[in-house]
Amino acid sequence: MSTVTIADRVNRIQESPSGAAAQRVRDLRAQGLPILSLTVGEPDFDTPDHIKSAAIASIEAGDTKYTPVNGTPALQEAILGRIERRTGASYASQELVVGGGGKQVIFLAFMATIDDGDEVIIPAPYWVSYPDMVLANGGDPVIVATTEADRFLITPAALRAAITPRTSWLVLNTPSNPTGAVYTPDDLAGLADVLRENPHVKVLTDEIYDEIYYGSGEVQSLIAVAPDLRDRVLTVNGVSKTYAMTGWRIGYGVGPESLVSAMNKLQSQISSCTANASQAAAVAALTGDQSFVAESVEVYRRRRDIAVAGFNSIPGLSCFAPEGAFYVYVNASGAIGRRTPDGTVIDTDQALTLYLLDRAQVAVVHGAAYGLSPYFRISFATSEDVITAAVEAIREALAELV
Ligand code: PLP
């Protein structure tokens, strides 16, 4: 057996729990079990044809070489145009970073700025990767629990209480994975007041789900509500979720030039640039026909309504209706403390998800993975039939608890 020594920065982190849940589903299906999976964190639609065609055309035209670190001129223009349309803020190409997904952009931001012991405030429940990315870069995640009563959003008072002289970043995610909660302009204005009192705190606002929104108007960006904070806000987005392009790996961020140039310097040594053909696809996504976006959101909206009504009708469960993204964070407190038919006590949300997998053959992800219990996350990026069947199977499994 190999005895390679692994660096502390890797030993500090864990594999993504949602990735682990998806792998468990694959393993059980390989054994022939008909598992219904509500774990998937990506659109179940195919990438629209005009986007695929643009990538094929770019390959055939010979665009198969390195590009500038932060993308081809066409991609830069497409991204900066979209940011300006959505936020009213105009950015130059030296304020733009392009990475292999929003995930890489977030990692680069932490890598470029965090020194050992720096703190990053992460409201819980959070996207599973934020704390591990902070740890991998030597920082200390400062987890701030939110409440369902506060719509799972960090309040100005909670933010103020969490800030210390070591605070490097606040991470905001709107709409949120895993809750689908969205910050209103008033919510953002309240946080901006606290940030003005604390000029050393930078803000990473992850808006990757901003187009998957069920409310009226548009999801508001911090930079639109508080343009005066522009010199310390990094706005992150990408094409993965909006255009069903998770496998193309294009994400981006805009922010102050000092930060972005450090991130681009790292990127130049890590991957040089993202894949040229994927960049052409992203240009077509951002500048081409947008009808896919509205059509897919209508499909998600119907699934959301089925899921929310279904989970709210199961005794012991309840849920907040997500305003964006494609997840429901189901409150499972009514199931905790009960016993399975074989006498096992369901003492945690993890025990509950294992019971549901075993008894209902439904895979969901436990709330502890997202930092707030007792909940579980379901993804409704799957068919209405699967959602309906999963709800009924969970209803029957919970009815057997005593
Ligand atoms: N941010 C959030 C909240 C996510 O849920 C994800 C993907 O699951 C990402 C960022 C990263 O997406 P990508 O790297 O595909 O752009």
List the helices and strands and how they pair.
Blueprint: H1 8-11, H2 17-30, E1 36-37, H3 49-60, H4 73-87, E2 96-99, H5 102-113, E3 119-124, H6 129-136, E4 140-145, H7 156-162, E5 167-173, H8 185-197, E6 202-206, H9 222-225, E7 233-238, E8 251-254, H10 257-270, H11 276-287, H12 291-312, E9 318-319, E10 327-331, H13 349-360, E11 362-363, E12 365-366, E13 375-379, H14 384-399
Parallel strand pairs: 1-11, 3-4, 3-5, 5-6, 6-7
Antiparallel strand pairs: 2-8, 7-8, 9-10, 10-13, 12-13
Helix pairs in contact: 3-11, 4-11, 5-6, 5-10, 7-8, 12-14, 13-14
Bound molecules: pyridoxal-5'-phosphate (PLP).
Give a short overview.
The protein has 402 residues and is an alpha/beta fold.
CATH architecture of the largest domain: 3-Layer(aba) Sandwich
Small-molecule binders: pyridoxal-5'-phosphate
**Sheet with the most strands, sense and barrel status:** 7 strands, mixed
- CATH homology group of the largest domain: Type I PLP-dependent aspartate aminotransferase-like (Major domain)
Helicity range: 40-55%
Order of H and E elements:
HHEHHEHEHEHEHEHEEHHHEEHEEEH
Radius of gyration: 21 Å
What number is the mean pLDDT?
96
Which strands sit side by side, in order, in the main sheet? Answer: 2-8-7-6-5-3-4
Globally, the shape reads globular
* Extended strand count: 13
* Oligomeric state as shown: single chain
Could you characterize what this model shows?
The chain is α/β, with parallel strands linked by helices and 402 residues long. The protein folds into 2 domains: 8-46 and 292-399, Aspartate Aminotransferase, domain 1, CATH 3.90.1150; 49-287, 3-Layer(aba) Sandwich (Aspartate Aminotransferase, domain 2). Helix content is 41%, strand content 14%. It has 14 helices and 13 strands. The chain has helices at residues 8-11, 17-30, 49-60, 73-87, 102-113, 129-136, 156-162, 185-197, 222-225, 257-270, 276-287, 291-312, 349-360, 384-399, and strands at residues 36-37, 96-99, 119-124, 140-145, 167-173, 202-206, 233-238, 251-254, 318-319, 327-331, 362-363, 365-366, 375-379. It has a 7-stranded mixed sheet with strand order 2-8-7-6-5-3-4, with helices on both faces. A 4-stranded antiparallel sheet has the order 9-10-13-12. A two-stranded parallel sheet has the order 1-11. Helix 3 (49-60) packs across helix 11 (276-287). The model has no long low-confidence stretch (mean pLDDT 96). The structure holds pyridoxal-5'-phosphate (PLP).
